[in-house]
Amino acid sequence: MEAKIPWTNEALERVKNAPDFVQPGIYKLMQIRAKERSKELIDSAFLTEIRNESMMLASKRIKQFGFEELKIEAFDTAKQKMKDANKKEVIDGIKDFLGQRTGKKESIIQKFSEYLKDDAKKMGWDKGAKQRLEKAPVFVRGMARAAIEEEAKKQGYKMITEKFVSEVMDNMMPKAVREGLMKKGS
């Protein structure tokens, strides 16, 4: 049996706030993603990264179903296309949960809306990563984007984060170029 990657208390507490029906899936997915990315600890920041990545992937699926915004009908369409009974049950749970929830539902819908605006064929970039890329000179942005996305795919990322952009820039770019970009972007 493969060893489980440990969690910080903060990350565990956050999962306890998720609906009961999605908690087992969160625990399972976090172990998979942590192993893929050679993480030694699942912390709150990594939990946020994977949550955002999952929302982005769900948004791409919603677009594939023909929806340009998050609507309840998207859940019904998704359920019809699913073959797995457990996934259908989770879709029903999410739909019911969002129907009962009032406060935080708007922030969830807003985040989905941001991802729905992105091109479904391209890799997702979170807001911080997009802002970081915008700091690069215009003439290198395309090459930088391609290099960062290629490295993300190699490492199993589904979404580019600001932290990942920093790591790639630190590892791929010569120090003099990095320092020049940092001065220019400041």
Entry summary:
The chain has about 190 residues and is an all-alpha fold. Helices cover about 70% and strands about 0% of the residues. The chain has a domain of about 60 residues: Helicase, Ruva Protein, domain 3, CATH 1.10.8.550.
What this model shows, in words?
The protein is an all-alpha fold. The protein has a domain at 122-186: Helicase, Ruva Protein, domain 3 (Orthogonal Bundle). Helices cover 69% and strands 2% of the residues. It contains ten helices and two strands; from the N terminus they run H-H-H-H-H-H-E-H-H-E-H-H. The longest helix has 21 residues, at 44-64.
Shape: globular
Provide the low-confidence segments as ranges: none
**Average pLDDT for all residues:** 79
Task: Quote the CATH topology of one domain.
Answer: Helicase, Ruva Protein, domain 3
Helix content: 55-70%
* Beta strands, count: 2
Q: In what order do the strands lie side by side in the largest sheet? A: 1-2
Q: Sheet bearing the most strands, described?
A: 2 strands, parallel
Structural class label: mainly alpha
CATH 2nd-level architecture of one domain: Orthogonal Bundle
CATH homologous superfamily descriptor of one domain: Proto-chlorophyllide reductase 57 kD subunit B
The helix tally amounts to 10
- CATH class category name of one domain: Mainly Alpha
Percent of residues in β-strands: under 5%
What is the CA-based Rg, rounded?
A: 18 Å
